[in-house]
């Protein structure tokens, strides 16, 4: 597990910084949620003047805004998704693509260690850090809701748990995608460009589906429609099965990346 | 032993290597020489498993490459042409990391090697000069006392003193029975350290010989001063250099007598006959079509 240990020490600070960014985002948004709830009547009137499809595009819904977890779920979680996706992509790039970029992959590949073991140790470290970040984010929103919302408003801890789960699967998915892109492209720059584009395309692409039915196919090219924030809040229903499927899909993508890593030539 | 047989590797339509064959016995240093783009590095990268060959065979010990590379990695040392390790790591940390791959490292060998190479372990890798980076590279390639060593232009960026250190380290490895592949375009060092050489040209081994054979097979260089007239000799013999008062002819040893007979009919002030250096021999093989008869 020497590669795991080295990776752990290399990526720890980076993960902590991104986790702090996520926590700070929650800390910035959740205390304001109470104020937004107090001015809900004005907001509902504002919503009535907007096209429904446009509101849905930005996870805004009058019913959703009637609940504090809904207020956080609309804008807070949207941004947390994007932050999480970017963090996971960059972390995977640092774990995998950077070895090619710095040509250290050559050093590792002649050491007494199989390509499989090398990949698994690195992937394990990446997954561990993503889980760590996601769990901390989930824990922090529970605590912040208790501290800032709990005294005045009722909220669903189940929905907040769902948010944490969604954040974790989003990070796992984009981490896995970025690991795959890394071993194929063997370049940090290319990996960052492709992975970022995928995060943006999948997130905003899926929201456009409601504006333009012709873009309906995008629903199938994105994970976000399967973990819908509005439906989760409105129905107090966490999409456990979908989340597990996305996590499983991430596992499959990592297996594909492993296969590519085992077979692909090092052309740097 | 290290065995390479009819190895061929193309990058799409671009030639990497066309047909490379050689074998290196234990305790032998084999020099793969040729200019940039000849196919030396591609051959080495196939042997280290970074690239997969299209056809042919590559073997390290009894293990087929790349399929069984994993079984020989703990007995293999590799020094890349361009040494790149983790820039933010201090050399000391890197050495510890390297040690973690070899649980049975001999601490005495570690210490002796670090002293011989005069490693500065306190600096970060990114702070090191090219020569010092290379020293770390040599260390990680040798510290586990490998049975097989693959070195891609190992003296690039090394000062003469350090080159001598490397040569003596390699001599020591050879004495222990290590099989060493050494690529270079510096012929003086190949001449100095290798037992046999393979000259690579356009992805093929065009000549394989011991250093002694290579010198023996080579032509003689005859330098003549103030030669007049030049034309009759030039028509019959291979004039390779004409500079100022001197002209140089390249001749196979059996033609020297005839040449001297013709030369006696011309005017000249002085003459010298010498064996070409390996560099000159090498250039001879690199002239289109190889040496002229």
Q: Can you characterise this structure?
A:
The complex is a heterodimer of chains A (268) and B (293). Chain A is mostly helical and 268 residues long. Helices cover 78% and strands 0% of the residues of chain A. Chain A has 10 helices and no strands. In chain A, helix 4 runs antiparallel to helix 8. The radius of gyration of chain A is 20 Å and the shape is elongated. The two termini of chain A are 26 Å apart. In chain B, strands 6-7-8-3-9-10 form a 6-stranded mixed sheet, sandwiched between helices. Chain B has a 4-stranded antiparallel sheet with strand order 2-1-4-5, covered by helices on one side. Chain B has a 4-stranded antiparallel sheet with strand order 12-13-11-14. The longest helix of chain B has 16 residues. Chain B is elongated and about 75 Å long. The model of chain B has no long low-confidence stretch (mean pLDDT 89). The interface between A and B is medium-sized, with 18 and 24 residues.
Q: Gist?
A:
Chain A has 268 residues and is mainly α.
CA gyration radius of chain B, whole angstroms: 23 Å
Helix content of chain A: over 70%
DSSP helical segment count of chain A: 10
SSE-based structural type of chain B: alpha/beta
Q: Which strand-content bin applies to the residues of chain A?
A: under 5%
How would you sum up the major sheet of chain A? Answer: none
Q: If strands are numbered along the chain, what order do they take across the biggest sheet of chain B?
A: 6-7-8-3-9-10
Number of strands of chain B: 14
**Largest sheet geometry of chain B:** 6 strands, mixed
Element pattern of chain B in H and E? EEEHEEEHHHEHEHEEHEHEEHEH
The most extensive interface, with participating residues per chain, is:
A-B, 18 and 24 residues
Poorly predicted regions of chain B are none
